[in-house]
C-alpha cells in the first residue's frame, strides 16, 4: 500500500478519534465506545481504526457516527473513505457480488484505452486467455476469497472484452515472465490449449507480445502484475486488493518498470520458441 493511501487511512483514523473524544455526552474511552457499538466491536478494533491499521467499512462509519452521538458526520466520513477506496479496491468488497462485477468495473477503462501496457508474472493475461483457462482462474480465486461463484458470467465478460484485440487503432503491449507459461493453475490439457492460443496472438498487428525467459539477466525482479491504461491510470493487483493509481508519478514509475523488464524480454520467433517449449514440456498429445 502506498504511503499516500496509508496516510489517507490514518487521517480518517484521526478524525474518528476526534469524534470519540468530543462526543456530546462526554469523551468516550475506546472500551466504552466498543461496548456502546455492540457485537463485533472491541477496544482493539477501535484502536486499529483510529491508528489507520484497519480500513473502515461504510457500516463501521455509520455505527461510529451514531455511537459518538454525531450522526450528521456520517456523510463526511463516507466521503473520506470513498476518496481513498477509489484507489484501494479491496477484493472483499469487489467480490461481494462475484467476479463478473469486477470485470464490468474495468471494462470502461479497456474501452477507453488506445494503448494498454500489461505485465504478468505468473498468469496468462486476461486479454489472451481461453475460456477454459479463464474458468480455472476464476474458480481458484473465488475459492481463495470465499466469494460468490459466478464463473460462467465472468468468463463471458472477459472473453467479450477480447474483441478489442481485433479493433484497428488499439495497441496491446503485453509482457509476461516465463513462469506464466508453466504455472499449472489448470490441467495440462487446458494449459496446452492456452499456450496454442497464446502463440497465435504473436501474429496480431494490435499485439506486441514479449516474454522474459527464466534464463534472462534481470535489471529488476519480476514483481506484481499491473496494467497501464494509456498514460493516465495503472491498476496493480495484490492479494488483498487492487490499487487504482492515477497520479502522474505512479503511472510514470510503472511504465519505467515495464520498460526495464522489457530489456530482458524476447519477442517474435524467440517468444514463440519459449511458448512451444512450455507446451512440449506438458507432454499432452
Description:
With 285 residues, the protein is α/β, with parallel strands linked by helices. It folds into two domains: 3-86, lambda repressor-like DNA-binding domains (434 Repressor (Amino-terminal Domain)), CATH 1.10.260.40; 91-281, Endonuclease Chain A (Endonuclease, Chain A), CATH 3.30.870.10. The protein is 52% helix and 13% strand. The chain contains 13 helices and seven strands. It has helices spanning 3-21, 30-37, 43-50, 58-67, 74-85, 91-94, 99-112, 131-145, 151-161, 179-182, 188-201, 248-262, 268-281, and strands spanning 88-90, 115-120, 171-177, 207-212, 226-229, 233-237, 241-245. It has a seven-stranded mixed sheet, with helices on both faces. Strand 5 (226-229) and strand 6 (233-237) form a beta hairpin. Helix 1 runs antiparallel to helix 5 and helix 4 (58-67) packs antiparallel against helix 5. The mean pLDDT is 93.
Amino acid at each position: 500500500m502506498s504511503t499516500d493511501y496509508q496516510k489517507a487511512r490514518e487521517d480518517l483514523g484521526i478524525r474518528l478519534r476526534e469524534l470519540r473524544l468530543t462526543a456530546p455526552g462526554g469523551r468516550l474511552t475506546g472500551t466504552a465506545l466498543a461496548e456502546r457499538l455492540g457485537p463485533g466491536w472491541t477496544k482493539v478494533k477501535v484502536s486499529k481504526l483510529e491508528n489507520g491499521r484497519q480500513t473502515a467499512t461504510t457500516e463501521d462509519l455509520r455505527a461510529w457516527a451514531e455511537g459518538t452521538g454525531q450522526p450528521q458526520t456520517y456523510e463526511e466520513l463516507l466521503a473520506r473513505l470513498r476518496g481513498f477506496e477509489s484507489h484501494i479496491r479491496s477484493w472483499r468488497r469487489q467480490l461481494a457480488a462475484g467476479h463478473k462485477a469486477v470485470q464490468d468495473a474495468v471494462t470502461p477503462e479497456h474501452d477507453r484505452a488506445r494503448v494498454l501496457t500489461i505485465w504478468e508474472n505468473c498468469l496468462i493475461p486476461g486479454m489472451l486467455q481461453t475460456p477454459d483457462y479463464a474458468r480455472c482462474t476464476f474458480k481458484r480465486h473465488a475459492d481463495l476469497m470465499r466469494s460468490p461463484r459466478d464463473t460462467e458470467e465472468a468468463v463471458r465478460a472477459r472473453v467479450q472484452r477480447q474483441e478489442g484485440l481485433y479493433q484497428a487503432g488499439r495497441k496491446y503491449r503485453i509482457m509476461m515472465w516465463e513462469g506464466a507459461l508453466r504455472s499449472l493453475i489448470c490441467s495440462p490439457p487446458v494449459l496446452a490449449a492456452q499456450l496454442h492460443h497464446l502463440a497465435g496472438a504473436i501474429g496480431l498487428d494490435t499485439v506486441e507480445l514479449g516474454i522474459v525467459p527464466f534464463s534472462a539477466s534481470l535489471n529488476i525482479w519480476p514483481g506484481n502484475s499491473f496494467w497501464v491504461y494509456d498514460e493516465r491510470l495503472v491498476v496493480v493487483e495484490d492479494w488483498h486488493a487492487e490499487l487504482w493509481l492515477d497520479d502522474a508519478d505512479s503511472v510514470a514509475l510503472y511504465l519505467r518498470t515495464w520498460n526495464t523488464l522489457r530489456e530482458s524480454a524476447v519477442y517474435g520467433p524467440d517468444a514463440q520458441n519459449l511458448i512451444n517449449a512450455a507446451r512440449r514440456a506438458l507432454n499432452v498429445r
